């Protein structure tokens, strides 16, 4: 069973977005573990009673878990994402740069019908940050979900302290729609996030093309 615009592998210069796979579990768990200090402050956590314990290097209360536990959680996480992708509710990609796994790009929480919108979430290995990989990956994802996935709007929720992620949406020209107090559970508490968004008609030539024209 396939969904609108999925599965899809996207290529632009040295960056590839490819569908997530359950067999990526061990490599991805190792990459997340190596980046635990870099990603930890922004890692979504799961409040007690939510019925979900997450997949990454942190448990509900932010305590590190074992590699085997992280791998098992990832396999379940990937299974859930792929099920959502088949239903047209998610576009879950891994990001590769020059053939190396460096991060993740997902457009999820998709509303169809009169809304046709989704939320972008992303992270990248610290050693590859600042090279323009993440802005390009987000631009590629935006163009695909708009042109082939039937979406009209993509938004990103970002902690106001997350300077690196704020630079990504600023570079792409995402519109700042303001603060949502206590929006996402992060680090064991409900954290404020700023919302940035773009609608399809705001980028008639595509976001990758806009990025190419942007000053370096």
Can you walk through the features of this model?
- 31% of the residues lie in helices and 30% in strands.
- It is α+β, with helices and mostly antiparallel strands and 216 residues long.
- The chain has 6 helices and 8 strands.
- Strand 7 (175-186) and strand 8 (189-199) form a beta hairpin.
- It has helices at residues 25-34, 36-39, 67-86, 133-147, 163-172, 207-213; strands at residues 10-12, 15-19, 91-97, 100-111, 117-124, 153-158, 175-186, 189-199.
- The termini are far apart.
- Strands 1-2-3-4-5-6-8-7 form an 8-stranded mixed β-sheet, sandwiched between helices.
Topology:
Elements: E1 10-12, E2 15-19, H1 25-34, H2 36-39, H3 67-86, E3 91-97, E4 100-111, E5 117-124, H4 133-147, E6 153-158, H5 163-172, E7 175-186, E8 189-199, H6 207-213
Parallel strand pairs: 5-6
Antiparallel strand pairs: 1-2, 2-3, 3-4, 4-5, 6-8, 7-8
Helix pairs in contact: 1-3, 4-5
Task: Give the averaged pLDDT, no decimals.
Answer: 91
Could you tell me the number of beta strands?
8
Which geometry do the CA atoms define? globular
Percentage of residues assigned to helices? 25-40%
Q: H/E element string?
A: EEHHHEEEHEHEEH
End-to-end Cα distance, whole Å, is: 41 Å
Strand order of the largest sheet: 1-2-3-4-5-6-8-7
Secondary structure class reads alpha+beta
Radius of gyration: 16 Å
- Helix count from the secondary structure assignment: 6
Strand content: 25-35%
